[in-house]
Amino acid sequence: MVITIRDYSQTLTGADCVIPVRLSDHRMLTCVLAYTDESIVVTDLRYDRHPNGDWIALKSTYLKLRILPGQLNAAMHSAGFAIREASIANGLLTLVAGVP
Which end of the chain has fewer CB atoms surrounding its CB within 10 Å, N or C? Predict the structure, then answer.
């Protein structure tokens, strides 16, 4: 089994909580993250340019489960998997696990 999740082990603060996601001539998307111990409140701010040139703002908020690397390792072990490889690169945690 291969699992890849975003590494949310470090709590971002201040301006670092504002993540630019996409920018083009017709769309801008930014995410704002607010951390709790068990979840992250994500607010998406999207601006779309219509053919007449007007910008229309769209926004939404949702919760993400905050799974820390140690929690994922423990869950995998308790489910009977053996971790064969674990790495964090570019903000992503990757686990390779299998049945022992």
Answer: C
Count Cβ neighbours within 10 Å for each residue of 40-75 and write b for 16 or more, e otherwise. beeeeebeeeeeeeeeeeeeeeeeeebbeeeebbee
SS3 state of residue 15 = helix
Encode pLDDT of 23-71 as tens digits.
999 999 999 999 998 999 999 999 999 999 999 999 999 999 999 888 9
Euclidean distance between CA atoms 82 and 93, whole angstroms: 16
| Strand, coil or helix: 95 | strand
All residues at 6 or more sequence positions from 66 whose CB lies less than 8 Å from its CB, including other chains: 8, 35, 36, 37, 38, 39, 40
What is this structure's pTM? 0.75
